[in-house]
Structures are given as C-alpha cells and as structure tokens.
C-alpha cells in the first residue's frame, strides 16, 4: 500500500524540512563567521558574505520577456544581478552579460529550497505565493519586489499571492487601488506600489514599429485561451474549434503554456481530434510576437494575451463567456467587477455558446467595426502607464530600494557597534 500525502500536508512537511535545514545552515554560518572573525583580527572585507546586491527569481522561462528589458538596463548601468531560473533551458542562461550572472536554480522544490536560503539585498520576481507555500522569505533578503506578467487585474492571482511582498510594480492606478483594498481587508501593512509600466509590451511595441509588412492570404483567427476550470477548452472542449473550422478563415490555436503541464491529457485529445492542416495550426512557440502580428482577430477568455493583442497591435478581440469563477483568486475578496471584464465589454464582442453556429459572421463584423478603437485607447491609458519607459523606471526603483536597504543596514550596524562599545566601557569601569 502506497502512502498518500495530500498537497497541503506535503507543503507543510516541506516547510518544516526547510525550516530545520535553514536553522542548521544559519547556525553553521554564525559559527563560521565567529571563527573567521577571530582569525582575521576582527576585520571583515565588504561583500565577502556571498550576498547579492540584486537577485531575480523566475519559476519559468516564459517570463524572460518581462525581465530581459530590466536586465539590459541594469547591465547598461553596471549593476550586478544574480538571475535565478527554474527552467534549465531559459534564454537568460545564454545571454552574454558582464554584470548579470544567470544560473539554473533547479526545478520545483529544489529552486524554492535555494531561494529560501538566498542572501540578497533586493529580490525581484514574477512568481506569486511568497511565504504562502513552499517559497519562504529568507532571513537574509532585505526586500522582495513583485512584477506582474500581464496587463490586467492584480487580483487574478491565487489567494494571498502577493500579500507578503514588500513592493509590487504596477502598470495602472486601478491595480494600486486593488492592492490597497486587499491590504485593508486582511489587516496587512501597506507595501510600496510604484507605477512602472509593462516592460515586455514596451519591447513588443518597438518590434512592431520596426517590423516589415506581412504578406497574407485570407484572414487569420487566433484562438488563445487561458488555462484552468474557467477557460475556453475546459468549458467548451472542442466545440469552438468545430465552429471555427466551418468558416473560411485560417485558424491558429495557441494554448496557454501552463495547459501543456496541467491539462496535457485534455490538450493531447484535442490535438489528435483536430490535426494540423493547410488552414489549422497548433502554435507552441515561446515568442508569441509573430503569431499576434499575423492574426486579424483574437478569440480568448480572461488570458492576459487579450491586452497584448488589443493594446500593442490595436486589433479587435472576441472573448468567450466562460463564467469566470473567482473563488480561488484574490478577486473573490473584492465585491466589484474585474477591470478585465469591464474593459472587454467596451472593447470586444462577447461570444456565448449559442453563438458558435454564427461565429463566422461575428468574426467578420468585429473586424470591420470601427467602434472599438476609442475604447482600446481608453484601456491603453488605464493599464499601460509610462509607455516606452518601464525598464528604466524599474531599474531606478530597484537601485533606489537597495540604497535604502544599505543605508538602513549601516545605521543598524552603527547602533549595534555603539551599544557594544558602551557595554564594553561599562564592564571595564566596573572592573570585569
């Protein structure tokens, strides 16, 4: 009989194990430091404790497009950054930087175990769930900063996803308001919420502005759903593909990358049922730029790619009515409609299951309509601040935060030294 451990218990056991190992490592560090202190006559070289000035952690290679513009900017400024990734084939590992050091941190719990014992002044990450499950705050990290990887609600994270970060970089004022409401409801201290922008969309816009024209034959429809129980494929299976192949459009299907991990059986069945042809393609490319540029219209649900397509490429969208269930997300705590869906109602056409048989006409009318342009511009202003400057502003913030951390640490060290000196003089006066 096999011993079954549910995910919650497994996470708890992992946390206990990491706590025990961490305590042992910190004890050994302290012993080593004292021995080193004795043999060096009390002298210690600056930076000899293995502490990184800046560290980045990503749980997936697909977020390199978020971090690369910031890493390029930090490299240009000569800032030393340790980039840790849980993907062994992350493109960051092949970059030829002078000041940025990219390393494979291991997959799964191995990566979290390393992060739990990291020594760094400032850590930047797109991974939610800090101090909730396996990833715990290290006692040797002074500041954790989160950066989202989509231009949409900050509340579409699993519950408590960003609660224990010290700062969250946002791209719109509505995201800051959502964070403040969650903090008030949960009794959390206010974190820093700098208005930065969206790094990867800035780069996508630069590429689009300099890209040559595309030679096309016919219209191309891109079907790019999110993943999970509220996504298009989970709700409708292949019925929407059935409807699309009956039109005379070219069809590109691009599942969310997480679907290939969490919903692989469902996807394998769909790919087998709807094989590629001269009019249907399944796209798994890491870089979605070309497929977005080639498409004339996007059909999705609540995936962040909707706003990449709408705001960067300025094209129409159709969003499926999937009755999004907020029960596992931070959005459940807020008694308000998500910004994503309020915006979609004004910038796209809602597709109900009853409309599948008429999908060809809906696609044509949506592409030909001239009513959505102004609303796309309004959405662009609300969720894409500082267009073209996000990487520079992110670097400014990280550097300023580290300066604050270092200043605080130096002041604390001075206070400790003064206290130790006072105690020593007092003991000497008392003849001890």
Low-confidence runs of at least 5 consecutive residues: 1-8, 29-48
Q: Write the element-wise H/E pattern from the N-terminal end onward.
A: HEHEEHEEEHHEHHEHHEHEHEHEHHH
Termini, distance in Å? 66 Å
The first-level CATH class of the largest domain is given as: Alpha Beta
Based on the coordinates given, report the CATH architecture of the largest domain: 3-Layer(aba) Sandwich
Percent in helix:
40-55%
Estimate nothing, just give the exact number of structural domains: 2
| CATH-defined fold name of the largest domain | Rossmann fold
Structural class: alpha/beta
Report the total helices.
Answer: 15
Biggest sheet, open or closed, and with what strands and sense? 6 strands, parallel
**Quaternary organization:** single chain
